[in-house]
Amino acid sequence: MVSAVVAHLLLFLISVNLIPTTPIVEERPFQAIDGGLGVAVGKSRKRVFPVPHTQEPNPISEAYGYCNTPNRTEQAWEGHSPADYKLLSVQVMIRHGDRYPLYSIPKTKRPAIDCSLSISRRPSHPLLNSFINHMGQGGRGHWESPLVSVPRLPSHSVCEMGELTQTGVVQHLRNGQLLHQAYKRHNLLPADWSPRQLWVETTGKSRTLQSGLAFLYGFHPDFDWRKLTVRHQWSTLFCGSACDCPARNRYLEEEQKRQYRLRVADTELERTYADMARTLGLLTRQLRAANPIDSLLCHLCHGLSFPCVPMGDSGAGGCLTMAQFAVIRRQQLDDEVDRRRVGLYRKYAILAMYPYLNRTAAKMERVAKSSEAGRQPRAGSEEVFTLSSAHDVTMAPLLSALGLEEARFPRFAARVVFELWKSPPATQGQLKKRAGKVDKSKTKDGELFIRVLYNGEDVTFHTTFCRSHDRHAGQPLCPLKNFLSFVRKDMFSVVNATSYQGACYRRPG
Length: 509
Description:
It holds the Pfam family His_Phos_2. This is 2-phosphoxylose phosphatase 1. It comes from Seriola lalandi dorsalis. The chain contains 15 helices and 15 strands. The chain is an alpha/beta fold and about 500 residues long. The protein has a domain at about 245-340. Helix 11 crosses helix 14 (about 480-490).
C-alpha cells in the first residue's frame, strides 16, 4: 500500500555534482537520440552532486538524465581504496531498468515499443545473447514463492504495462559488468563461491526480478544456478518483518498534503493540464488521473513523438508538446525544493528505511567479526555480496535517510553501493610513531571503514554520519562505527526519538 501511494508522490530530485578524477570507465558508442525530441549526446559523467546552480535547472536535460540511455561513457569509483586495504563485503541496491509506462493517456495510442529481446536491435550488449540462453536454465535455481512464476526475461513484442524493455536489460548488464571490472582484483566473489556468500533479493514485479538477473549476469557471467537462491521482498521498502510503523504512514500522509497544496497553487501547471486535456478531448481531472508524465517520459526516453489525436468537431485535436512536458517537469523540480525545505519526507524516509539500513549494518558486523585477527576463517561462511533489486520508491527514501537530500532522483538502473573495508594490521610502534612516540611493535588488527557510492560516485562524506569526519586526519575513509551509531540511534534524532519502536509508536501531538 505504501509503495502505491509513494509512486504517485515522487518522480525526481534536483541534481548536484561531485567531480572524481580517475574512475573505472566503460566506453559506450556515440548514439544520437532520434525522433525529433532529443539532442545527440556523447560522453557524460552523469554526476550525482552539482556545483551550485547559477541558473534554474533545465527540465528537459534533467529528464534525459533520468532516462539513462546506454549511449554514454560510464564511470565507477567502486573498488577504490588506500593501498593494502582489504574489501570485505559489498551490498548493492539497484532500481530496475527502463520500463514501459504504468499508465496510458486516454484517447491516445500507446508507445510502440517491442519488449522482446533481440541482439540485432539497439541498444544491445555483447553479453545479451549468452544472458538470454543462461536464463533458459533458471529452473535449476532456487526461487522463493511467488518468484517461481515470474518470467525471467521480458518477452512481449507489444510491451505490457510496466514491462522491462531491452534498454532496461542492457542498462543492468552494463551495471553488473562495470562492478565486475571494479571488484575483480579484490576477488570478492571467488570462482568457487558458496551459496551463503551471495544474497539476491527482489520485489515480486517482473521488472525488478529481470533487472536483478541482468545485473547479476553482468557481474558474474554464467553463474551456477544451483548455488543461487532468489529471495522475495513483499514490500517495496524491503522492511521484512519490521514494516509496521504508524508514524511513518502519518508522515507520508502529511507529505502528500504538502505536495497537493503546492501543486494546486501552481497556476501555470493548472493551465497546462487544462490545455492538454482540451487537446485530447478529456476532462482535466481525467488527464491528471492518467499521470501523463509517466507515458510522456517513455516517449522521450525512446525518441518517440509525443501523442496526437485527430482534429474533431468539438475543437479537440492536435499533439501534446515538449513545452507542456517541460512545465510538468519544472513543477516537479520546484516540488523537490519545497520538499527539502519542509522536511516531512526526510522523517518518512528515516522510518521507511531503518529496517533495510539495520539489516545492512548487521551484515557488515557479521562479516567484520568473521575477519577478526586470530579467528579461524571458515570458507564461504558470510555474505560478501548482496544484491537488492528495487524501485524508485525504495531508493529515493534510502538516499534521503542517508542525508543525501541533494542527490539526483533515482534514474532508471540507478545503484547505491555500500562497501566494507579493513585497513592493514598496524603495530603499536606505528601507532605511537604517529603520535610522536617510538615503541617496540605489537600487531593490532586493522580498522573497519565504510564507503557509500551512488551511480559510481563516492558520496560517503555527504552522508549525515560522515559529513563532519576529517578524512585528512590519518583516516581517509569513514569509520564503520559512525554508520553503526547512526543506524542504531543517531538517525532517530530527526523524529525526536532514540529508537525505531519509540519513533513508530509514539502518539502524535
